[in-house]
Structures are given as C-alpha cells and as structure tokens.
Design goal:
Layout lengths: L1 H22 L8 E5 L6 H15 L3 E6 L13 E4 L9 H14 L3 E6 L13 H15 L2 E6 L14 E3 L2
Parallel strand pairs: 1-5, 1-6, 2-3, 2-4, 4-5
Pfam families: AAA_24
InterPro entries: P-loop_NTPase (IPR027417)
Protein name: Twitching motility protein PilT
C-alpha cells in the first residue's frame, strides 16, 4: 500500500511538472530588431515609445538599457530602466554580452530588451557590430526574447545587416 501511495505521488508530481512546463513554454519566434539613422533623427524617442507600447502588451518583463540617466523619465513605470553609467567596469563587448546573459539568467521572465545607442555601449563599433548582433541573435534564440537596438548610423553602413535573424524597422 505504501509503495502504491509513493508511486502515485511521484506520478502526480511528474505530470503536474510536465503540464506546467508546457503551459509556460513560449511559442514565438525571437528576433533582433534594429532602428538605424544618424544622430538626432529620433531613434531614442522611437525606442521609448516602442518600449512603452511593449510593456502594455507583454506577458514578461521589458528592459531598457541606456548609456546615461537622460530621458528615462518618459519610460513607463513598468519598464525596467538600466543605465550603464551605473556599471562602469563593463568596458568590452564581451563583458556587455556577459552582462546580458547574466541579466537573462537572473530573470527568466524577461521578454524584450531594448538597447539604446548601441555604438555608445562598451567598445561596440561599426567594425564589430556584426559579431555583437550575432551574439544577440544567439541570446534571443536561446531564451526566446526580442531585442530592439538603435544604431547611430545609416543602415547601408552596417555590415551583414541583411540576415533572416535581423529586422530593420526603418
């Protein structure tokens, strides 16, 4: 009788765990979205508006990464604003990618990450932005989340932008 009870409890535990895993599984295609244009063309404002819209419709958390604390007051209260000035030891692209991995590992509910002025973050430049976007695409696919990044350059000057993994919004 005791064996049957234990067997029953184990099976119920397994079935409820399996059901909950299937219930919360995200079933959507993740992507890296780009907003491009020279300085002063309204990329930051467009990103803020997108983040404010996304937080209203998202089932997960929305994160907005900026270089400084400027213009964070217009973000919706539900958007988690992260200012990289608060993390002065993140200097290289690899450290920045590690920061993103750590953020996602620490909060599995993150649904969307916005990175404003990506060329001002760490040592990311037009020379290595292709490698950076490849890393974002990998993080996006592994964790089923979307990235929106703004790049202060014309889309023609961004190498390897024509990929199925990237979506240029403008």
């Amino acid at each position: 009788m005791f064996k049957n009870l234990v067997w029953c409890i184990i099976n119920l535990s397994y079935l409820s765990r399996k059901k909950s895993q299937n219930t919360y599984k995200k079933e959507r295609f993740a992507m890296v979205n780009l907003i491009t244009g020279p300085k002063g063309t309204g990329k930051t404002q467009q990103m803020i508006e997108l983040a404010n819209e996304k937080v209203k419709t998202s089932n997960g958390n929305v994160v907005f990464i900026k270089k400084s604390h400027r213009n964070t007051t217009t973000l919706d209260f539900g958007v988690r604003a992260i200012c990289m000035e608060d993390y002065p030891d993140i200097l290289t692209m690899d450290e920045f990618i590690g920061f993103l991995y750590g953020m996602v590992a620490g909060n599995h509910d993150i649904d969307t990450i916005f990175i404003d002025s990506v060329l001002k973050q760490a040592d990311i430049s037009l020379n290595n932005i292709s490698a950076f976007m490849t890393s974002l695409s990998k993080i996006s696919a592994e964790n089923t989340l979307d990235f929106f990044i703004s790049v202060g350059a014309e889309k023609e000057s961004i190498p390897d932008i024509d990929s199925d993994n990237y979506n240029v919004l403008n």
